[in-house]
Amino acid sequence: MLKNRVIPILLLKDGRAIKTIQFDKYRDVGDPVTTARIYNAQRADELMFLDISASSEGRKTLCNIVREVAEECFMPLLVGGGVSSIDDIRLLLCQGADKVIINTAAYEIPGFIKRASEKFGSSTIVASIDVRKNKEKMYEVYVRSGNYSTGLNPVEWARSLVNEGAGEIVITLIDREGVMKGLDIDLIKSITESVNVPVIASGGVGSLKDYQLGFEDGGAQAVAAGSIFHFTDQNPIMTRNYLYNNKVNIRP
Amino acid sequence: MIVVVDYGMGNLHSIAKALECVGGNVLVSSKGEDIKKADKIVLPGVGAFRDGVANLKKRGLDKILISEVEKKKPLLGICLGMQLLANKSYEFGEYEGLSLIDSEVKKFNESIQLRVPHMGWNNIEILKDHVLLKGVKNNSDFYFVHSYFMECKNNEDVFAECSYGSNFPVIVAKDNIFITQFHPEKSQKNGLKILKNFAGWNM
């Protein structure tokens, strides 16, 4: 049986692992390669690297980090941050990424997801959707690191990304990011019920129960989290034990 | 020397490093002469079948691979590198493969219950023992990323299956050919065991 996945997130800025709160106020949490090694030893199901430097220098550093991690961590690596061309994708894949995350470029470059998935296969192309709740309490898609409102509805946007060829969706509620007060199950459920591809839920995991809710109530295939691993004594082994003992379908 | 065939399809760095990690002497190459010189061949691959076949043909590697396999040189095919050995695939049309394994490549029937791609860790059921599976326990989890799967004409070629909607072959082997739908180079300890067994495989 296909297992649910637990995915630690490594946010990168200028070669360091950092952690943000609601995409803002970042703080340094260590050396990314060392951290990745530890997560590998703890049998994380995948690792997610997101570079928020969004500069060509940052991209170069990201490539070096991915390359170094891929040399000794024989596990799936999911990588993104400012990816906006076929060459960006090819370069990351060559360094050892298995799947590439596309966010802003999916919105700003019409047809990009389609071209990318035709070139590299749908299963390599992951579309990431960042969402905020607006004043009317409606969910709305944001791009450019949460700074630009698109006016799009997340469910419709997710459907169109999958129609274009995205093989997986990452859904993040920015309002919960780094806050550790739980995932937004309503948002996650609205996405998992609307698309036939795997969904990674992110933004807000603060307890082991939150993973379980993401899988069981949200219907997500994977839950990604950063803060819980950086700022609490939880690690992927303990997370997996908790979930396994609570009858969640997870790698033993 | 193990040659990892570079035909412009996907992540070669990981497989090369994983083979080195288990003691393999590895060369990543797109040259036919290197494939001829090698003791063993790894055909990796991520991407679409059509591009994979076209890239092999463009480099003249399809015929070399077939003739080296016929000379009983061990071949490990991974993911797309497995599927390329089929007679044909129905991905984005209908395309002919290398016809080294009597089989066809078909798509999963997707639904909310059966999300496609089949992505993540799934346990495999070992149907028959194989020297490359030494040390690998039945029902071990391996990492998969694919939307198409191989359907074999001969049951005796199927060494392990996996369940996703229905059962489908995930390890197919015949003489000196050993191919996996999952990614051993991404499957942590279990995957490295298979790669180690391959590196030490003497036909």
**Secondary structure category of chain A:** alpha/beta
Measured between the Cα atoms of the first and last residue of chain B, the distance is 15 Å
Fraction in helix of chain B: 25-40%
In CATH, the homologous superfamily of chain A goes by the name Aldolase class I
Fraction of residues in helix of chain A: 25-40%
* CATH architecture tag of chain A: Alpha-Beta Barrel
Q: Supply the number of structural domains of chain B.
A: 1
Q: Sum up the overall morphology of chain B in one term.
A: globular
- CATH class type of chain A: Alpha Beta
Number of domains of chain A: 1
Task: Give a written overview of the molecule.
Chain A has ten helices and twelve strands. Chain A has 252 residues and is of the alpha/beta class. Helices cover 37% and strands 26% of the residues of chain A. Chain A is globular and about 45 Å long. Chain B starts with a strand and ends with a helix. Chain B is built from six helices and 13 strands. Chain B is an alpha/beta fold. Chain B has one domain (2-199): 3-Layer(aba) Sandwich (Rossmann fold), CATH 3.40.50.880. The longest helix of chain B has 12 residues, at 188-199.
Notable traits:
heterodimer, A: 252 residues, TIM Barrel, 10 helices, 37% helix, B: 203 residues, alpha/beta, 4-stranded mixed beta sheet, 13 strands
Summary of the model, kept short:
The complex is a heterodimer of chains A (252) and B (203). Chain A has 252 residues and is of the alpha/beta class.
Layout: helices, strands, pairs:
The complex is a heterodimer of chains A (252) and B (203).
Chain A: E1 5-13, E2 16-21, E3 24-30, H1 32-41, E4 47-51, H2 56-70, E5 77-80, H3 86-95, E6 99-102, H4 104-108, H5 112-120, E7 125-133, E8 139-143, E9 148-149, H6 154-164, E10 168-173, H7 185-192, E11 199-202, H8 208-216, E12 222-225, H9 227-231, H10 236-245
Parallel strand pairs in A: 1-4, 1-12, 4-5, 5-6, 6-7, 7-10, 10-11, 11-12
Antiparallel strand pairs in A: 1-2, 2-3, 7-8, 8-9
Chain B: E1 2-5, H1 12-21, E2 26-29, H2 32-37, E3 40-43, H3 49-58, H4 61-70, E4 75-78, H5 80-83, E5 88-89, E6 95-96, E7 103-107, E8 118-126, E9 141-146, E10 148-152, E11 158-164, E12 166-174, E13 177-180, H6 188-199
